[in-house]
Structure formats: C-alpha cells, structure tokens
Amino acid sequence: MDRALPMAMSDAHLRAPQAGGEESLALAENLARGSSDPEQAREAARIFALEGLRERAIDVLRQGILTHPRHSEMLASLADLLSRTGTFEEADLYFGKALESEPKNVETWYLQGLHHGRQGHVAPAQAAYEEVVRLKPDHVKAWVNLGLALADGGDRDGARRALERAVRADPGCAEAHSNLGVLLAEAGHKEEALDEFRRAVDINPDCSESHFNLGWALLAGDELAQAETTLSESVRLDPGNVEGLYALALLHQRTGSYARAVSELKQAIEKRPDDA
C-alpha cells in the first residue's frame, strides 16, 4: 500500500451571500456604484467573486484602490483575487503594498501564505504562517497550514507540533485532526492515527477526505469490513474521489470480490485516464 494519505490545506473561504443570482448582482452593482466606502467596495467584490465574476470583482477593487491607495484590506483582497486567478506576480505586488500599509495585519499574512502555497513555494508560505501565529497565537487555520508547510519542507516533527497546537487551540477542527492523523500514520503510530481520523469524521461526517483517511488506515490494518463501509461513504460523499475508488478496488481484490474490484478500477480510470 504505497499511496500517500492526503493532507488538507485550510483555505480561506468566502461566505455565501444571503441572496442569490440576479438579486445578489444587483446588490453588488449598487454597492460598487453608490459609495466610495472601501468596505462597500470590498463587499461588492466579494459578491461578484461568489457569483463567478472574478474579473468584475477585481475591477471594483482596482477602482476602490484609486480612491484609497493605502487601504490595506482592499489591497489584500485584490491580491488574493489575483492570486486565485493565477496572476501571481501582480498579486505579489499588492500583497507587498498591503503589508507596507499595515505590517501587522494578520489576515493579509494568512492570505499571502495561501498565495505562496498555491505556487508550491514552501519556505515563504511557512514564513507567512509563522508570522500569523506570532501575531495571533490562536489562529487555528494558520497552525494547520504551518504544519503542512513544515511537512512539505521535511520537518515532520515540527509539523506534528504545529498540528497539535491547532488541536489545542480548537479541538473541533476536523482538518487539524485529519492531518495530524496522516503524520501519525506515516510515523507508524497506527492506533493514535486511527483515533485522530475518527475524531475528524465525528466532527465533520460530511467530509469525504476524512472518511478516506480513516478507511485507508483501517485497510492498512486489515480491518476490512470497517474499511469498506468507510471508503464507500467517502466515495458516496464525493463520487469523483478516485483515490477512494482505487482503495475499494484493492479491498475487494483482497476479499475475492473481483468483479467489484474491476468495476471500481474502471470507474477510477474513467475519472482519471492519465492514471491508466
């Protein structure tokens, strides 16, 4: 069993708007046109982005920055949107301006960490998350992502300490438990890993990845009946979960259910033909 368990980065998620579709867009346009207030411009951009109109959101923020060139949160919002669209060099520029305007803004440092992580830049991502937790020691998502950055950089002990700190700060953080379980499993601490995976599933039973991690660990321990139930739930929650389908195929091969194993392999290949 040589497939690695996935570790989940804790991303920044925009909140869903209260109104949808045309009503939301009308509200956003009114906010964008009706006031020079930077907070209204940011809210308009947030709604446009949620509705899939990122270019319009970027335009609103650019216009707002013309009036408020040193508004750190608006600069950071623009940088984040540019990063999400893959315009990384310009995003770097606006993150720099945001931090120059407000060097101790925790959210800007956090968004910059995500920005570096999207590009696979481990060291600067780690540095950004370290600054977040220095400024705000109970920032759970930063501890989670710092743990991932440290793991990516080869510091597994440091990663474990960061994830344990995340769990202490928020015992209800499923991502922290799940990622800590991955590290424990890699280190051979099977029972501790299972405990963490079970906690993650209990906290967030709708997370396909948490079910997959638990199912894979159960499969590794030859607890096949529980593994089958858990992996099947992972695939039910996310039908595009190719890793879950591969794991179920391996399980059914072990149990002699060859027709089911072949069916799951075919489904996995259809969803990701490059793996064939």
UniProtKB/TrEMBL annotation:
Pathway: Protein modification; protein glycosylation. The keyword Transcription does not apply. Keywords: Glycosyltransferase, TPR repeat, Transferase. PROSITE patterns: TPR, TPR_REGION. GO terms for molecular function: glycosyltransferase activity; identical protein binding. Residues 1-21 are annotated as: Disordered. TPR repeats lie at residues 72-105, 106-139, 140-173, 174-207, 208-241, 242-275. It comes from the Bacteria. It holds the Pfam family TPR_16. PANTHER family: PROTEIN O-GLCNAC TRANSFERASE, UDP-N-ACETYLGLUCOSAMINE--PEPTIDE N-ACETYLGLUCOSAMINYLTRANSFERASE SPINDLY-RELATED. This is Tetratricopeptide repeat protein. It comes from Eiseniibacteriota bacterium. The lineage of its organism: Bacteria, Candidatus Eiseniibacteriota.
